[in-house]
Amino acid sequence: MSTTADIRNGAVILFKNSRMKIVEFQHVKPGKGPAFVRTKLKDIKSGKIIDHTYNSGAKIEFIRVTSSKFQYLYRDGDSFVFMDNNTFNQVNVSKEMMDDGYFYIKEGDTIEISFDGDEIISLILPSKTVLKVVQTDPGHKGNTATNALKPAKLETGLEVQVPLFINEGDLVKIDTGDGSYSERVKQ
Q: Could you give the angle at the alpha carbon of 82 between the alpha carbons of 86 and 180, nearest 5°?
């Protein structure tokens, strides 16, 4: 058993018989009263996020997870096939587990997959990804001074708002956290 002093972002704990990932935490030492730890916990199965407060020094059961780099191979119906870069074993990841992550990966990309034993508990995407614009209105030279945006469809099917100077065939960097345009990438 560990205590609240061992809490880290991304750690997985057992909370009310559910595996929960610590999304965020904050140690609070008020001027009056004992110290405590505020946490945001994400249920790994349902994705539901809850807030929970622990007294400082409370016992917490951490779950030992292993993670490895996997290469995305292809989509097979409602599942996605990944290959371990070290052992070449293949694993299938359901569409529910991928959530919207499949919009940010293309064949050949590498992501990190975490396991509790043999069960997949989470997928860790890179913070940014580079994707090709396949459909958008034509861009016009000189349209860089305003913050005006237009819709663009990317090679994975993701639709994002991009600046007016972006054309079909351009490569753009997308933030996988919120799905927003970050910058244009030179080819």
A: 115
Per-residue pLDDT of the chain (187 residues; tens, 9 = 90+): 788 788 888 788 888 888 888 888 888 888 888 889 899 988 877 778 899 998 888 888 888 888 888 998 988 888 889 998 888 888 888 887 777 788 888 888 888 888 877 778 778 888 888 888 888 887 666 666 667 788 888 888 888 888 888 888 888 888 887 888 888 888 7
Q: Say if residue 57 is in the same domain as residue 92.
A: no
Containing domain of residue 178, as a range? 128-185
- What's the rounded Cα separation, in Å, for the pair 23 and 80? 25
Angle at 71 between CA 75 and CA 95, to 5 degrees: 35
Q: Domain end: 62, 79, 107, which one?
A: 62
Alpha-carbon distance values, 138 to 22, 89, 133, 135, 165 (Å): 44, 44, 11, 9, 8
Check: pTM over 0.70? Answer yes or no. no
End-to-end Cα distance, the chain = 51
